[in-house]
Amino acid sequence: MEFKPDTAPVGGSLLISALLAMLPLIVVFVALGVAKMKAHWSCLLGAAVAMVIAVLAFKMPVGMTVASFTEGAAFGIFPITWIVLCAIFLFELTVASGHHADLMRAFNVISNDPRALGILIAFSFCALLEALAGFGAPVAIVGVMLVAIGLKPMKAALTVLVGNTFAVPFGAIATPVITGAAITSIPAQELGMYITRQTAVMAWVVPILLLIIMDGAKGVKELWPLALVVGITYSIATWVSAAYISTELTNMVAALVSLAFGVLMLRFWQPKGVTEAIARMTGKEAAATAKDNEDVPVTFKSVAWALFPYILVIVVFAVTQMIPVVKKALAATNIKIHWPGLWSGDTNLVLTAEGKATSSALYTFTWLSSPGTLLLLTAILLSICYGMKPAQVWKVFSTQVYKLRWTFVTIGSVLGLAYVMNFSGQTLTIGYWIAGAGAVFAFLCPILGWIGTAVTGSGTSATALFASLQQTAASQIGVDPSLLVGASTVGGAVGKMISPQTLAIAATAVEGKESDMLRKSLPWSIGLLVILCIIVGLESTSVLGWLLPA
How far apart are the first and last CA of the chain? Predict the structure, then answer.
């Protein structure tokens, strides 16, 4: 029997139905933020509530409700967590091989100004790590690196939290974008292009903000040329990569381009006031810092090997995504599955409110073409080039599987929750109700993503929760759905710096207190959110609408 969702199933009232549909999200947020439950238990509880509401209030058959959850969970495990696992595995291979340490030493040779290094590490290099690992790993790694170059722990934490902001939407090989595209059926490249129309407009100013955090107005006065070069080249590369190269490689390309331009500039230009800045920020004399940098030699070969993994990833993805024959051959291996319980033979049983079959009920197993599999291939090639033993490689991989075991449960359950809410009509009902705000909603939509990531700690999870809702609301108010879905993802990126999970990771890395970090990072997060809301609102009108893809 086919199921067509009703947007006002409770007494014909859209308001009451929407409030009831919000209950699963409220349960997740309260469980995480108030009850301090673990993320996986909070999301599982929210999913259970969503399933009960789907059956009792939205009249979805029990079997179909369970099938909706299992398909969402399956998508969460593959390809989403598969991408995360392989991305982190690749990075951990560089650590285990010792080449990541070479890269750290190379940074110390580039400049003895901690402010210049802070920009390159917290902005460009952090984006590079976010491209591969994501899910908090860059915050931990870069936080330690910033303390190592002399920043005080609290400043180091705030610097990395703000610096990592606009890399989040394309983190872990664009996992949030891929998730949003899968849920809404918007092509990933199109969604990525819309997202860069917001991140590129804002990201160029982030290095300036980092200077303010690290050294106040004096830092801006003495290093603004470097900040602008790094920020502008990052924004341009982000825009170009998403539009013409690869959605998955957007972060990596932008990070490498901005890093290269920053390093090149420091070869021909050095900021003033370095000695005073070192003494003011680190308590060390410049001579002592220089001596520290001379202790370990850095060669071109060691730096090349340290950068090799990132170059290899770009090559692999460029070949598989930009050569039509290869891309088509990989896509031909995809296995399309009529998800049990959602199909009757070749008949899709899940309909939209308009009575059309939903494409999301068809699960595609991208076992070979998945970015995760391509990352695994890259990791295997990397281990061979590094001369690592199979036992060592397996140890790194198995260790990451164990560390991420609860992350798998969290992502699987939140995707299951999203699928239940989407298929049963709960998300649709919330979207119709919010759409009552009219055109004003375009200005407010990033707030949903901001709240979602602030509570769940994951841009991917927030995208999974709200992508369909944003799409529905956009359709109701006559705004391009890609704009609002993308805005929600970017809003989530801005909210990540105040997420309890992210703060906990940063606190562990720099030995600080989460409460102090929250107090210091909250104003920055709110400020960026307000600017984002204005930009998105204006992009929904003719004022800035020309920025959007044609």
Answer: 41
Q: Rounded to an integer, what distance in angstroms lies between the CA atom of residue 472 and that of residue 470?
A: 5
In sign, the C-alpha dihedral spanning 210, 166, 547, 238 is positive
CA pair distance 477, 158, nearest whole angstrom: 38
CA distance 415 to 40: 12
Q: Where are the domains of the chain?
A: 14-326+400-547
Identity of the residue numbered 195: I
- Alpha-carbon dihedral angle through residues 220, 223, 225, 226, given to the nearest 10 degrees: -120
Q: Cα separations (Å) of 355 from 2, 60, 350?
A: 10, 15, 9
For 329, residues 6+ apart whose C-beta sits below 8 A from its C-beta are none
Q: How does 341-359 read in b/e, with b if 16+ C-beta sit within 10 Å?
A: bbbeeeebbbbbeeeeebe
Q: Which two tokens stand for residue 519?
A: 């107090």
User: CB-based burial of residue 12 (10 Å sphere; 0-12 exposed, 13-18 middle, 19+ buried)?
Assistant: exposed
Q: Are 374 and 8 in contact (CB under 8 A)?
A: no
Rounded CA-CA distance 19/21 in Å is 5
What does the alpha-carbon distance between residue 476 and residue 124 come to, in Å, rounded to a whole number?
Answer: 39
**For 62-136, where are the alpha helices, taking DSSP H only?**
62-75, 82-97, 99-110, 114-119, 126-132
**Structure tokens that stand for 488 in this block:** 């929600």
387 Rama sector, left if φ>0, alpha if ψ -120 to 50, beta otherwise: left
Residue 216 burial (C-beta neighbours within 10 Å; 0-12, 13-18, 19+) = exposed
Please check whether residue 499 is in contact with residue 135, taking contact to mean a CB–CB distance below 8 angstroms: no
DSSP structural state of residue 546: G
pTM of the model: 0.78
Average pLDDT for consecutive 10-residue bins of the chain (550 residues)? 91 94 90 82 94 97 96 89 85 88 79 92 91 73 81 91 94 89 92 96 96 95 97 97 92 94 93 86 58 64 86 84 87 94 87 79 90 91 96 95 88 88 89 82 90 78 85 89 96 89 70 75 95 96 92
